[in-house]
Amino acid sequence: MPSKPWDDVIGHAQVAKLLDLWVERPAFSYLFYGPAHVGKATLAEKFVRALAGNTDLKDLNLHPDVVVFSPEEGKKDISVEQVRKNRLRLYQRPQISQRVVAFLPKLDRLNETGFNALLKVMEEPPADAVFVSVAENLARVPSTIISRTVCVPFGLVPQKEIQKALETRGMDAQEAEERSIICRGRPGLAIEPDESREAYVEAARQYARGSSAGHRLAASEKLRQLCESNEDVTGAWMNALETCMQVLRSEFSSKTRETLILAQGVADALACVGGAIQPRLLLDAAALQASRGRLSIPGLYPRYFPLSLS
Questions:
Q1: How far apart are CA 66 and CA 57, in angstroms?
Q2: What are the sequence ranges of the domains in the chain?
Q3: Of the four listed, 17, 25, 32, 102, which is most buried by Cβ atoms within 10 Å?
Q4: Domain 13-153 adopts which CATH fold?
Q5: Tens of pLDDT along 48-83?
Q6: Do the beta carbons of residue 290 and residue 244 sit within 8 Å?
Q7: Are the C-beta atoms of residues 215 and 206 closer than 8 Å to each other?
C-alpha cells in the first residue's frame, strides 16, 4: 500500500483517517486547533499539499493555487489589507489543481477587522476554494467563523506512542524515553526541544509554589517582563502560561484547592491572550483568590468576565 503524506506524523491516527476521506471530498473550511507543538500545524500543511495535488512541495507560497495568509515580514498580526488582497485570488479559477486552497497557519492572529473581512468570503464562499486554518487559542476565533468550519481538535499524544516513534526514527531508547516524558504529550518538543520555554520555568514554579500572594505577584510580574520583551508577545504568553499549567499539574496532589484556583486563573489568562484584558491581570487575581482560598464555581449561564475576576 502506498504511503500517505501524514504517515510520519506522531499520534493523531483518528484525524489521519479523516484526512484520507476529506482529501477526496473536502468541505469548505477546516480548523485544526489545540495546544502548541502537538502536530496540528504539521498535519494541516500536509493536508493543504494533498488538496493542492503536490505533496512534495516544500514552500507552499510557490504553489499557484495555494493562498497563504500569514503575517507580513516584521509584523506580528495578519493585516486586513492582506486578507482583502488574498480574498480576490480565492474567487479566481485554479490554475493547475482542482481547487484553490486558502491556508491560515495562525488564524488566531487576525484582528477584528481581519476576521470581518474573512467572514465576507465565508458568507459567499468561492466554488473552488477550501480553507484550512490552524489556531492555538480558539477563544480568539469568532463564533461566526467557527460555525462555518469543520473543527478538528488536537490533544496531547500518549508518552509511549511518542517514545516508540522516536525509536523508530533511530533515536537511542534511553534518550527517546527521556524526551517523551519531558515533552508532556507534545511530539514537536520531543523532536526539537524548545529552549525558549526554559526561561519561563523558574517564574512558573515561583507562581505555582509561592508561599504568599506577594511571591506569586512577583512571579506574575516576572512572566510579564519575559513575555513583553519577546518579539512575539502573543506566542510568548502562550508558552509562558502553558508552562505554568504544566507546573501546576505537578502540584495538584499536595495542594489541591490552591492549585485549582491558580489553574483557573491560568486558564482565564490563556483565553485572554491577544485580547483587551492583559493575561497578567488574571494571574494576579488568581494569586489573590488563592491567598483567601476562594474557588469560583462556574454557573449554568454564559459568563462575560473571567471567573478569576468575579
A1: 11
A2: 13-153, 157-193, 196-309
A3: 32
A4: Rossmann fold (3.40.50)
A5: 999 988 777 788 888 888 989 887 776 767 778 888
A6: no
A7: yes
Count of helix runs (H) and strand runs (E) in the chain: 13, 5
Instruction: Give CA–CA dist 175/293, Å, rounded.
Output: 41
Grid cell digits, residue 297 = 464555581
**Matching residue, cell 484547592:** 257
Please determine, for residue 2, whether its predicted confidence score (pLDDT) is greater than 60: no
- With H, G, I as helix, E, B as strand and everything else as coil, classify residue 85: helix
- The DSSP line for 217-283 is HHHHHHHHHHHHTSSSHHHHHHHHHHHHHHHHHHHTTTSHHHHHHHHHHHHHHHHHTTSSS-HHHHH
CA atoms of 57 and 224, how far apart (whole Å): 39
Q: Please give the grid coordinates belonging to residue 258.
A: 490552591
Angle value at C-alpha 198, between 70 and 268, nearest 5 degrees? 65
Q: Is the pTM of this model over 0.90?
A: no
Tally the residues of the chain: 310
pLDDT band per the 50, 70, 90 thresholds, residue 299: very low
* HSE-CB of 88 using CA atoms within 13 angstroms: 5
Average pLDDT over residues 200-213: 85
> How far apart, in whole angstroms, are the C-alpha atoms of residue 7 and residue 278?
40
Nearest to 222 by CA among 207, 211, 233, 232: 207
What is the C-alpha end-to-end distance of the chain, expressed in Å?
57
Mean model confidence pLDDT for the chain: 83
